[in-house]
Amino acid sequence: MPAKVYTEKDADMRVLKGKTLAVLGFGSQGHAHALNLKESGCKVIIGLYKGSKSRRVAKQKGFEVYDTGEAVKRADVIMVALPDTKQASVYKSCIEPNLEKGKTLLFSHGFSIHFKTVIPPENVDVIMVAPKGPGHIVRRQFVEGKGVPSLIAVYQNPTRKAKKVALAWAKGIGGARAGVLQTTFKEETETDLFGEQTVLCGGASALIQAGYEVLVEAGYQPEMAYFECLHELKLIVDLMNESGIHGMRFSISETAKWGDVSVGPKIIDKSVKKRMKVALKEIQNGKFAKGWVREYETGYKKYNRLLKAGEKHGIEKVGSRLRGLMPWMKKRQVKGAQAAY
Predict the structure, then answer these.
(1) I need a surface site. Which of 10, 300, 324, 334 has the fewest CB within 10 A?
(2) Neighbour-count burial of 7, counting CB atoms closer than 10 A to its CB (0-12 exposed, 13-18 middle, 19+ buried)
(3) What mean pLDDT do residues 106-130 have?
């Protein structure tokens, strides 16, 4: 059964009237939600730890900034816009002591609630508003008068107003302009992790690097390998994004189409699908979550080692040089692995 799509007419911003909304963290999603809600007429404050570099930025954007615990105390709706691995400790030290009956906790990803690294009291509403796009896109689309499709979910609803608050928040950030779909914390968390690991990030990165290595090891120029295995991927993904896989196939050559349908399934075969199912099972049974929390608690050693190895891959060096030849492409120099908050 298709999911119901909610639009702006289904959301009432008056639900948030007279309420103080606190956004804890001012990173990718946090800054976008805060700015969009502020420009939608809501009272928004920011909660950050002492010494956060984001304090100055948030103040420059016109927000009142408080220590995390004080922001929770002052707010009616509290968005936990912190990295998944930070949420449990911040919840225990700053959020939980300042929660009162009738307040609302809001998340943009279900990890902490679903895997119970955060266990809220039963007398507060717990909801999710998750735009299906990174924060800078959520912000850009809003400024342009558009929006990013968003998911909402209700985990606890003692006030019986949780869904209305979730829809109003989604409208306030621009999500209802594009469409809002209802899900559950479980479904959002498990599908999101699966997509990241097997297709969008892990699967795509590994496929690109493997293809590049095969061509270079066969004696072809690294530049040619880069163009064929990475650079042109965006063009294909854009076509898929605009009109689906069938639409992409309509736009490519007959030769490319034949290679797609006849060779592709030999590369991504039943054995790959079998391993995807194993990955999904480890998400569902909590093995991945436990391993990730343990990685954080032991200082990100394996995580940082794997990231550094990826940075040294040959495709990064040749790619950096070739992107310098493309003046039309927006360049971003990325440093460090940790998300800002």
Answers:
(1) 334
(2) middle
(3) 97
Instruction: Read off the pLDDT of each residue in 73-86 and give the average, rounded to a whole number.
Output: 96
Cβ atoms of 183 and 153 within 8 Å: the answer is: yes
- List Cβ<8 Å contacts ≥24 apart for 255-258: none
What is the rounded distance in angstroms from the CA atom of residue 314 to the CA atom of residue 229?
13
List of E strands, 57-124: 64-67, 77-80, 104-107
Using an 8 Å Cβ cutoff, are 286 and 196 in contact?
A: no
- Which tens digit of pLDDT belongs to each residue from 192-232? 999 999 999 999 999 999 999 999 999 999 999 999 999 99
Each residue of 235-277: pLDDT tens digit? Answer: 999 999 999 999 999 999 999 999 999 999 999 999 999 999 9
- The strand pair at 180-182 and 5-6 is best described as antiparallel
Rounded Cα distance, 234 and 248, in Å: 12
Residues annotated as catalytic are 109
Kind of pairing, strands 43-48 and 64-67? Answer: parallel
**Residue 164 C-alpha from the chain's centroid:** 23
Confidence tier at 328 by pLDDT (50, 70, 90): confident
Asked if residues 155 and 128 have their Cβ atoms less than 8 Å apart, the reply is yes
User: Which pLDDT does position 339 carry in this prediction?
Assistant: 42
Enter the tokens of residue 139. 């912000």
Report CA-CA distances (Å) from 334 to 32, 137, 206, 229, 231: 20, 17, 20, 21, 18
CA distance 237 to 240: 5
